[in-house]
Amino acid sequence: MNKTITPSIDSINRQWYLVDAENQTLGRLATEVASVLRGKNKPSFTPHLDTGDFVIIVNAEKIKVTGKKGMQKLYRRHSGRPGGMKVETFNSLQERIPERIVEKAIKGMLPHNALGRQLFRKLKVYKGSEHPHSAQNPQVLSITTNELVK
């Protein structure tokens, strides 16, 4: 009889990956990054453990969406006060805080529990091509999602 091997916390080898979001489709990029954060690209993947890697995303302001989503996709937040709902379109949020768009898309694809919050902390999103994690020697993760963008 075979036994399932659960990797120990010490045996998990974490890598750092760098993803350039320039001209990438938002949802397609988010699914690939969520998979790497979760650790599904490793043979030691375990659903209830954090076996994933760190991901750095640069050029978040240059991400694309298809169709009319730039004007039609809405991002909502609420202050908790009566009448405190704020609604913003994709284009206006991309001008203001482009990192939030990518973070929100990826966070929605992670588990909605304590494990998902732990996985989300390994995601680093930056506007522009500069990032402060060069000491970790991130490997470039090439994701080709822009076949459908015109």
Report what the structure shows.
It contains five helices and six strands. The protein is an alpha/beta fold and 150 residues long. It has a domain of 94 residues: Ribosomal Protein L13p, Chain: A (Alpha-Beta Complex), CATH 3.90.1180. Helix 1 crosses helix 4 and helix 3 packs across helix 4. The chain is globular. The protein starts with 15 loop residues before the first strand and ends in a 10-residue tail after the last strand. The mean pLDDT is 94.
Number of strands: 6
Structural class: alpha/beta
Q: How would you name the CATH homologous superfamily of one domain?
A: Ribosomal protein L13
- The overall average pLDDT, rounded, is 94
User: Unreliable stretches, pLDDT < 50, 5 or more residues?
Assistant: none
CATH class of one domain: Alpha Beta
Query: What spatial form do the alpha-carbon principal axes imply?
Result: globular
Return the CATH topology of one domain: Ribosomal Protein L13p, Chain: A
Rg over C-alpha atoms, rounded to the nearest angstrom: 17 Å
The major beta sheet can be summarized as: 4 strands, parallel
Number of helices: 5
The ordered string of helix (H) and strand (E) elements is EHEHEEHHHEE
Strands of the widest sheet, in order across it, are: 5-2-1-6
The percent range for helix content is: 25-40%
End-to-end gap:
53 Å
> Per CATH, which architecture of one domain?
Alpha-Beta Complex
Beta percentage is 15-25%
